[in-house]
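=== Structure Prediction Worksheet ===
Name of assembly: unnamed complex
Input type: mixed (protein and possibly other molecules)
Chain count: two
Listed entries:
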Amino acid sequence: MGLRPLSAEPILVLSQLTKRWGRHMAVDAIDIQVERGSIFGLLGPNGSGKTTTLGMLLGVLQPSSGSYQWDLPGQPHEQRRHIGAILEHPCFYPYMTGSQNLELAATIKEAAPHRIDEVLHLVGLYERRHDKYRTYSLGMKQRLAIGAALLPDPEVLILDEPTNGLDPAGIVQIRNLIRDIGAMGKTIILASHLLDEVQRVCTDFMVLRRGQVLYVGSVQAALGDKDYVILDAPDRSGLITALQSLVPEADIQQMAEYVELRGRTPDLSQLNRLLHDQGVALSRLSRESGSLEQEFLAILDQGHHG
Amino acid sequence: MGRLLRIEWLKVKSFKAFWVFLAIYFIALLGMVIGSRSFLRFLKNQGAEYKGMDPTMIPLFDMSDVWHNVAYLSASLKILAGFIVITIVANEVRNRTLRQSIIDGMSYREYLAGKLLWNLAFALVASAVVWLIAFVAGSIYSPVHGLSYVWEGLQFILGHALIIFCFMCMSLMITLVLPRPGIVIIGLLVYSVIMEPLIAVFLRHYDGIPEAWSLLADMLPVSAINRVVQIPFPKYILQEVQTYVGWPQVLVALGWCGLFILGSYTALRRKDW
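=== Predicted Assembly ===
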């Protein structure tokens, strides 16, 4: 684990970015860069500095020291018009309709008026566009915020817990939306507690704890050698004996309901054939991917002891 | 400029509290002018008189006194204009839409410029209404008429606009520093009506204070703003009053305005939203 090599085309560079409130160090000298076109996950427990970091990048929190640089055209406020962002929770006027709120956002962002109906369709709120924002459910508010973020067809999307309050169908919809936007070459910075979500959509991620960077790198690099094989057979002791002789370099662990095989392993069909030749009939055989959750906990644990 | 005004308009056009305060403001404006004659009649009925003159003989709406009189009376409602600013800005802070505006791509300067343009537009519209009220009252009650009288008192109407604008800027700054509408409204009332007059009395009359300091009493913010259009009524008991809006008063008021704008910008820039 370690810092990722400098990217050829970073869209965002943070240099010693720091935020402290009195004695409390919220963000401690972060030095990272985000590649253009990447989907960058921001992970960390509550109070780790994720939202504070994003707040500084969006100009609403003033850094105590250090700096950040967006590779986008114009002055900082003009650069923010190329960024669609949700910070913490949706912020709209409760007495205005969904459509009026988007009209205001479009005027601020100087987005084309026709985008309002487009994004309302995109986030599934077109039918409720004339209803007051205060009558929306939490999920609808979240979707309106995502709609507002997409108004200017942004080059960068910053989403802070975008699936908060969404039902399972909404979560899938937002996840697909993030993937679709990522596939269009846009850069996405995603802060989330949902590690599964980050693992599914992100290309890179950073782990923060008490304002300090514990890890930054690609998801692939973090999970690349973390695949493992799950096997089971009616004669489990026979299975373990056979495995010890067939793949002596692998790490074999007997779990409650199956046997786990980690390290260098043959492909599944070859393994099945070899075990069959040894007289072991398998009742279960599958290859599982490493989980970001395990990796995240390991990073936090390492940071805790480090 | 058009974009910034449009943004402010979109924010308030369906904001009920704004329309309620606006209605109260204009009803009070009209009521104060109409009520002033009734008040003079009431004083007469109570037996009030000065050297044989009864109060209804005061030519409140005569051309060209009407401009100064109506501008002065209307300027006393500036606190309501301040409440409108406080309500709008505190609402933006509470709903975190000020923060969202910055995230969406407004600079702090643009945000402040939008508010100042809005204050200016409000002050000009309110002053246009005051001009209209004075014109109608003058047309009805004045024994003399004519276009020359219409333009004569325009300086007092512009002075009224400056008073409203300055007070709105002061309210804006205080709300950005402390975005709690209840506290700010009560604080502003207490300061304008009780505290500053007390400070002024202290500066003018306390024995231990050097006499030169009494000049400071006129420089205090609310006093300085009020002095742009001063009380016209003593002239009816043959005392000397302001006959034109003086540049020194305008410059002091503008100086305070500049400080309020600087204070607002500093609060916007330094605070975490």
